Amino acid sequence: MGTRGIRGAVTVEVDMREEIVSATKWLLEEMVSRNEVNPEDIGSIIITTTEDLCATFPAQAARLLEGEAWQYVPLMCAREIPVPGGLPLCIRVMMHVNTDKTAKDIHHVFLRDAVKLRPDLTNRG
User: Fold this and answer.
1) Which CATH number fits domain 2-119: 3.40.50.720, 1.10.10.10, 3.30.1330.40, 3.40.350.10?
2) Is 124 assigned to a binding site?
3) Where does prephenate bind (predicted)?
4) Which DSSP symbol is given to 75?
5) 92 marked ligand binding residue
């Protein structure tokens, strides 16, 4: 079994704790569901936010997910590089999973305005 990265991103409307946690929870659920990931197989998750999001740590969302395994997933939050013209109000996730899937079998998840980041991956089956 090898390790693969699963990318994900979602945008929020405003910098509010509830919205950040809700959107991050939704994104993590979609990433796990679409890739049939068992939380026990998640090695770690890195979550970044754009500079305009600072109301809370989005990693808190993982602690709200069902299953004891989520309590043991290593999480880290960081700030996204502030590139001029970059997508605002965006939460990005890099989930490292232990899997036998090939790179082409991984389904990356981009929700709301984040579909603009990688339309080539968003429209994939």
Assistant:
1) 3.30.1330.40
2) no
3) 7, 92
4) E
5) yes
